[in-house]
Amino acid sequence: MSADVLSFDKQWGKSAHIDLTDCEHDRLTSAPMLEAFIKELIKKIDMVAHGPCYIDRFGSLESNLEGYSAMQFIETSAITVHLDEVGNRAYIDIFSCKNFAEQEAFDFAKEYFNAQQGKLTVLDR
């Protein structure tokens, strides 16, 4: 196993993981706002949607895990979003074989969900 960082032209893709905390609650409880977020994110990182955006609500208040999840195929892979409306958190994963501006995606997501804290982790694939 190597810890070397590959240049993008030598790797297969990139995976960006965005963890947001202390988000604005109303932004986490609306399926239309979630779909709008994904559509705008796709534009921001210069991707192309492939097919419809799938959104569903999962969990239960009894388990303290409740919220919307979304999955959007893009021509070069997929974007998934999981919203935790009990804990006011958002988890966004972007995987693409096409390079993209992960910092721009992070900044946009943090602003869109009005998150007070955030963390960006990027993996070369």
TrEMBL record:
Species assigned in the record: Candidatus Andersenbacteria bacterium RIFCSPHIGHO2_12_FULL_45_11
Keywords: Autocatalytic cleavage, Decarboxylase, Lyase, Polyamine biosynthesis, Pyruvate, Schiff base, Spermidine biosynthesis, Zymogen
Cofactor(s) essential for the protein: pyruvate
Domain of life: Bacteria
Protein's UniProt name: S-adenosylmethionine decarboxylase
Gene Ontology MF terms: adenosylmethionine decarboxylase activity
Listed InterPro entries: AdoMetDC_fam_prok, S-AdoMet_deCO2ase_core
GO biological process, one term: spermidine biosynthetic process
